[in-house]
Design brief:
2 helices; single chain; 3 domains; mainly beta; Immunoglobulin-like; four-stranded antiparallel beta sheet
Length: about 375
């Protein structure tokens, strides 16, 4: 100890100051820490899977107002929700185009962070941070959302005027303090909530009970080519009563329709005659349901010929009828193609004021030519 004291005693004051600073820095290490807003993960967890495929909305992207339970704050009972929905032009007519099958809409890579950054808020304004998810469990929906902000009270004409809208997954609205109604749509599924802004940033998470359905038509093992089959979607089972107006119509094959969770029936139209099939489906929350509809039909080419195997006569008027005489399809041309359901038919051809007829049978998946002899 004596040797140590003698060695330290001869040091100048500047040495002691530098040593003290080094001790302070070594004893108090600086740690970087990132604080995330409540309800947000730095790395989003993967969504639930349907079989081997997970689903979150196409970006579409891929639904009429559902009954959505909002546990934190009550849903808006007044104003009338019809005044909060988008105009007719933005309803089911515009269906989202799905991404490649390996990634459905709203799927986020596990390495991508979705932490929103609160912008600089001007004096007298408040930030409102919103996000949505399927039910109570994360992760958040990553795409396909349409947000709208309305005042919580109507104007002098009783109308709730749109204040702001955004299509981001987790937008941040900057608004004056006051009461607002936040409306979010995900395809044909919607949710609304009343919020009150005062001075601090407000964070709201919406729960949307929605899923997706993707359609495909087949004849036997063969997929019907795109453009030849369309689908109409109706609420409820096909056995629950009369047909109502479809909530989504003329849906193309491989398109994703975003719907509130529940039961539906789909009408598949192959061609534009009588090849129609109805199927009941169930849409589950947060899942993508692939619907394959099998048609028992075939493509028939009609020809009016002077002799077997001869050239088709132009300017021919055609009528295809059921055995009972009901008209199934009418066409004009030398060799029109018609898609017909399985069964027996009669055909009438008119050319140059002369009428010719014949009979034929349609077998599923057997596409062929039907010749009618002009004599």
């Amino acid at each position: 100890m004596t040797g140590l004291r003698s060695a330290l005693t001869g040091r100048p004051r500047s040495f002691w100051a530098a040593a003290a600073l080094a001790l302070v820095l070594c004893g108090s290490p600086v740690r970087a820490q990132t604080t995330l807003p409540p309800g947000f993960d730095a790395i989003p967890r993967p969504p639930g899977a349907v079989g081997a495929q997970g689903f979150m909305p196409p970006g579409g992207p891929a639904s009429a107002a559902p009954s959505v339970a909002l546990p934190q704050q009550p849903t808006v009972a007044n104003p009338n929700p019809l005044q909060l929905t988008p105009p007719a032009a933005s309803q089911p007519a515009s269906l989202p185009t799905p991404p490649p099958p390996a990634q459905a809409q709203g799927m986020q890579p596990a390495s991508v962070s979705s932490v929103p950054v609160v912008p600089m808020v001007p004096a007298g304004q408040v930030a409102l941070m919103v996000s949505a998810r399927f039910g109570r469990d994360p992760p958040n929906i990553g795409a396909g959302l349409h947000w709208r902000i309305y005042p919580d009270k109507p104007d002098a004409n009783g109308v709730f005027r749109l204040l702001k809208e955004e299509r981001a997954a987790a937008p941040i609205f900057v608004l004056p303090p006051g009461g607002y109604v936040v409306h979010v749509s995900f395809g044909l599924a919607t949710a609304a909530k009343k919020v009150q802004l005062r001075s601090e940033t407000v964070r709201e998470t919406f729960e949307i009970s929605a899923g997706g359905a993707r359609f495909e038509g087949r004849v036997g093992d063969s997929r019907i080519p795109p453009g030849q089959v369309t689908f109409d979607v109706y609420r409820g089972s096909q056995f629950e009563g009369e047909d109502r107006r479809p909530i989504a119509s003329n849906v193309a094959a491989a398109d994703v329709v975003l719907l509130p969770e529940g039961n539906y029936h789909v009408v598949s139209n192959y061609g534009n005659s009588n090849a129609t099939v109805r199927s009941d489906i169930r849409v589950q929350m947060g899942k993508l349901t692939d619907v394959v509809v099998n048609h028992r039909a075939a493509v028939i080419t009609l020809k009016l010929v002077a002799q077997a195997g001869g050239e088709a006569l132009a300017n021919t008027q055609w009528s295809v009828l059921t055995p009972g005489g009901d008209v199934v399809k009418e066409a004009v041309g030398a060799f029109p193609k018609v898609v017909l359901a399985e069964g027996e038919y009669s055909v009438v051809a008119k050319n140059e004021d002369k009428t010719f007829s014949g009979k034929f049978k349609v077998e599923p998946g057997v596409d062929r030519e039907i010749e009618v002899l002009a004599h």
